[in-house]
Amino acid sequence: MSLDYKNPNIKTHMFEGYFGLEKECLRATPNGFLSHTEHPFADNPNIECDFCENQTEFITDVCNSTETVWQQRADLQKKQ
């Protein structure tokens, strides 16, 4: 059984709920090598190192709209 996304009842409620995002990336030097410097975001609870110092994880808060969560992710990315 597939959902009928054109159905007005489904379309109305499709983006209701709570949303959060995580984005992981690797910190690199200007020469393209993995960074071996200390994690520079220790004071920001939304930016963590995952399993190694050069992997950065951006974690949004739980938001009640997709627009808000995408805006927060963009703001976090700008801070780095």
Q: What this model shows, in words?
A:
- The mean pLDDT is 84.
- This protein has helices at residues 8-13, 66-79, and strands at residues 22-26, 47-49, 55-59.
- The chain is 25% helix and 16% strand.
- The N and C termini lie far apart (44 Å).
- The protein is built from two helices and three strands.
- The chain has 80 residues and is of the alpha+beta class.
- The chain is elongated, with a radius of gyration of 17 Å.
- Strand 2 and strand 3 form a beta hairpin.
- A three-stranded antiparallel beta sheet has the order 1-3-2, with helices on one face.
- The relative contact order is 0.22.
* Beta fraction: 15-25%
Flag low-confidence runs: none
Q: Note the run of SSEs as H and E.
A: HEEEH
Subunit organisation of the chains: single chain
User: Count the helices. How many?
Assistant: 2
The overall strand count is 3
Structural class call reads: alpha+beta
Largest sheet: 3 strands, antiparallel
Helix content: 25-40%
Mean pLDDT over all positions: 84
